[in-house]
Amino acid sequence: MNEILMIAGFALAAYAVVSNDSIQTLGTFLAANNKRPWWALWAYVSSILVAVLLYSWVVNGGDPAYGRLEKFPVPENGISWIHVAAPFALLVLTRFGIPVSTTFLVLSVFGPGNIVAMLEKSIVGYIVAFVVTFSIFFAVLKIIDRRTTGAESEQEPAAYWVVLQWLSTAYLWSQWLIQDLANIFVFFPRDLDLQWMLFGMALLVLLQGYTFYERGGAIQKILTSKQSVANAKAATMIDILLGTIYLVFKEWSNMPMSTTWVFLGLLAGRELAFTVLRNSTGLSSTLKLIGIDASKALLGLAVSVALAVLSMTVS
Q1: Residue 216: what are its φ and ψ, rounded to 5°?
Q2: Relative to the CA of 231, which of 18, 32, 41, 160 has its CA 20 to 30 Å away?
Q3: Backbone angles phi, psi at 36, to 5 degrees
Q4: How far apart are CA 110 and CA 308, in angstroms?
Q5: What is the reported pLDDT for 156?
Q6: Closest C-alpha among 179, 217, 181 to residue 13
Q7: DSSP letters along 229-246, please?
Q8: Three-state secondary-structure class, residue 182
Q9: DSSP 36
Q10: How far is it, in rounded angstroms, from Cα 254 to Cα 262?
Q11: Nearest Cα to 297, choosing from 273, 269, 265, 271?
Q12: What is the tally of helices (H) and strands (E) in the chain?
């Protein structure tokens, strides 16, 4: 029974994370390459996924999560229904296009005592992403993005920008995987044998393919509602900024953080820079949009805390 719950939890978490968090990372890649075959994009990101997973599993002695689960031990009584309920709730919220933090929702039930530490790191991540993104975009937007509106936004970008965007996607995708693989592999033994590793990797690749076939699903709409994200230049800059922020916080500590909150902070800073720089009269609508995205993330946090408290009651 425990093995069935373990597989069910892993499968639900894998699908929820792939359809929610990974699109936050790969959304600019999808938007900037919307005219290219979905299977070509899938093959590219899947090759990076396999490489990152295998590297950690080999180098870290059977740990595909890069040490992020040190403070989240396997439950003494095994996986229970409350652990499986967390990714199921995440899956439901994702279907409504709500960018919920999988870090809070999934990991909280495995380590309720770590919620405060995860929250602190995630809040700092949001603020850093917001401030850095706003500052950089405000400073260089006129140079890198001054011709991305109107008719030219529909033209095919220069070949070197496409190459740079694909390389920046690889950089961001690998850094995101290092952060978020813990949210999926938390259901498996910490010292993972080859059989379970291959099973998990194959499932992730297949689910990634389905998400690319759907062109991102509901969460992608949050990204495409922002300005100029389909442009290769803007997408490249987003990827480099977000990937570097993940890298910095990875070196800070092994405590997992919400990549969703960092992503929303980046989008908020970027959107505000666009509005302020262009002297737009839509400042109030931009602030409203930022507030709506933040409220959705807080909704996920509330659900996470509720499930964490319930898990302590059940155990």
Answers
A1: 100, -25
A2: 18
A3: -95, 155
A4: 8
A5: 60
A6: 181
A7: TTSHHHHHHHHHHHHHHH
A8: helix
A9: S
A10: 16
A11: 265
A12: 12, 0
Long-range CB contact pairs, 202-210, < 8 A, 24+: 203/10, 203/11, 203/14, 204/14, 204/18, 204/49, 204/53, 205/46, 205/49, 205/50, 207/14, 207/15, 207/18, 207/19, 208/18, 208/22, 208/42, 208/45, 208/46, 208/49, 209/39, 209/42, 209/46
Question: Is 263 in contact with 184 (CB distance < 8 Å)?
Answer: no
Q: Which two tokens stand for residue 200?
A: 């998990």
CB proximity list for 154: less than 8 A, separation 6 or greater: none
User: pTM for this structure?
Assistant: 0.78
Give me the amino acid identity at 112. P
- Residues 140 and 134: their CA atoms lie apart, in Å, by 10
Residues 6+ apart with CB under 8 A from 166: 29, 44
- C-alpha angle 30/31/35, rounded to 5°? 80
Q: Residue 183 and residue 174: Cα distance in Å, rounded?
A: 15
- Cα separation, 222 vs 260, whole angstroms: 12
- Written as tens digits, the pLDDT of the chain (315 aa) is 678 888 998 998 888 777 766 666 787 788 777 788 989 999 999 999 999 999 999 999 899 988 888 888 888 777 888 888 888 887 777 677 666 677 777 888 888 888 888 888 888 988 998 998 888 877 766 565 555 454 444 456 667 777 888 898 899 899 888 888 888 999 998 888 999 999 999 999 998 888 888 776 554 455 445 555 556 676 787 788 888 888 888 778 788 888 888 888 888 888 888 788 766 667 787 788 788 777 877 776 777 677 767 766 665
